[in-house]
Specification:
By secondary structure, the chain is an all-alpha fold. It contains 16 helices and no strands. The chain has one domain. Helix 6 packs across helix 7, helix 7 packs across helix 8 and helix 12 packs across helix 13. The chain is globular. The N and C termini lie close together (6 Å).
């Protein structure tokens, strides 16, 4: 059923689908534009600081791009390789954990197929922000002949677990690096005099007020909202997702599941720490500094710009400033990390994963480039 629905949708030239793809292109262009603007602003600000430092040191002006190129040439390739190994281990753990969520649904997907699907999702996020999770489920469901809607439910659980883990990591970071992190918040969201209070900040209060108002309005108009066709359709999708979400209650080997849930993020942390060792200005920083940069950088990736472009650079550079790393060196580190993972690993691994997923599952329906487009909701409503 899923395959036939996909076929009908992909071959439909209705104005609705044309509009849908145009909206997807516009969303990507918006997020890409934001990322590019942040990158241009960061580059110009760091270039100005770099030129001023050269002037203070009595050295002639030098193009900032030349410094970036020299910094890339100076990296220790062994530690770059180890960073890539850590990311691969994390993705493998994610594939195993994902399969453990799928097993209670009556499916037994191959771990290698799940690993390929995870790689494809990261590759997709580079050019269609936040579409990677849908593509991940679609790729695996198609390769294994599973119901897409049920698999999507397990992806929802996977991301919820990530959010919970990230919250724990952030809490731990504030516990062990309280003074440094609070100093950054005071400098960037307060007055810089130590008087900053998060719960009194206008932005925090505004978000709280918006959230409360939204919940009140939703409750007051809940009956009318439930009658809207779109809401009815979404609710049906949520019910289908529920089957996948409930799978977490049926995990057979909980200790192994917990191990892989932790290992995913431990490897993410090690990616930052190992990349520290690859670059001279960060090589002597402590593991605690790596934890702070990791947390800041993770929020940069979460913000919906392609692969965290610009947002990751800004937050990673800001975090490194807390440990005495000059802005221009922090910007170089952020670019080294970004290019290593997002541009080198995710592009190569993503393309290879599409190829191998096809080759190893020829008896199923092979993945095509069209499947890397965000599926229509009708696909997710597959009744299989």
């Amino acid at each position: 059923m899923y395959q036939s629905v996909v076929f009908n949708i992909k071959n439909c030239n209705s104005p609705f689908l044309v509009k849908k793809y145009l909206v997807s292109i516009l969303k990507y262009s918006l997020f890409l534009g934001i990322g590019v603007l942040i990158m241009v602003w960061l580059y110009n600000s760091q270039n100005a600081a770099f030129q001023e430092q050269l002037r203070l040191d009595g050295k002639p002006p030098r193009p900032f791009i030349n410094k970036l190129i020299d910094d890339f040439r100076s990296v220790n390739l062994f530690w770059i390789f180890m960073t890539l190994v850590a990311f691969s281990i994390s993705n493998w753990s994610r594939a195993i954990r994902w399969n453990m969520l799928i097993h209670p649904l009556g499916y037994q997907p191959k771990t290698l197929n799940s690993f390929f699907a995870v790689n494809i999702s990261y590759f997709t996020n580079l050019w269609m922000s936040r579409a990677g999770e849908v593509v991940r489920a679609s790729a695996l469901a198609k390769a294994e002949g599973m119901s897409l809607s049920r698999v999507m439910g397990t992806v929802v659980v996977d991301r919820i677990l990530d959010m919970v883990t990230l919250a724990i990591i952030v809490g731990f970071s504030f516990l062990v690096q309280y003074d440094i992190l609070w100093q950054w918040l005071d400098k960037n969201m307060g007055s810089g005099d130590g008087s900053f209070r998060l719960f009194k900040h206008p932005l925090f209060l505004g978000l709280m007020a918006f959230g409360i108002l939204s919940m009140v309005l939703f409750y007051v108009f809940r009956k009318k909202i439930a009658q809207l066709p779109l809401i009815s359709k979404v609710w049906h999708i949520v019910e289908k997702f529920g089957e996948g979400i409930k799978s977490i209650k049926s995990i057979k080997n909980l200790p192994v599941f917990i191990f892989h849930s932790i290992n995913i993020w431990v490897m993410y942390y090690f990616m930052t720490l190992l990349c520290f060792y690859a670059f001279a200005p960060t090589a002597e920083l402590s593991p605690m500094a790596a934890l702070t940069v990791f947390v800041f950088g993770t929020f940069g990736i979460v913000i919906p710009s392609p692969g965290g472009m610009g947002t990751y650079h800004f937050l990673a550079t800001s975090a490194l400033l807390l440990y005495g790393v000059k802005g221009e060196d922090g910007f170089s580190f952020a670019n080294i990390m970004f290019c290593t993972i997002q541009l080198f690993y995710n592009i190569i691994a993503g393309v290879l994963s599409i190829f191998f997923l096809n080759q190893l599952n020829k008896k199923q329906h092979p993945l095509s480039t069209d499947d890397l487009l965000e599926p229509d909701t009708d696909v997710i409503l597959d009744p299989k």
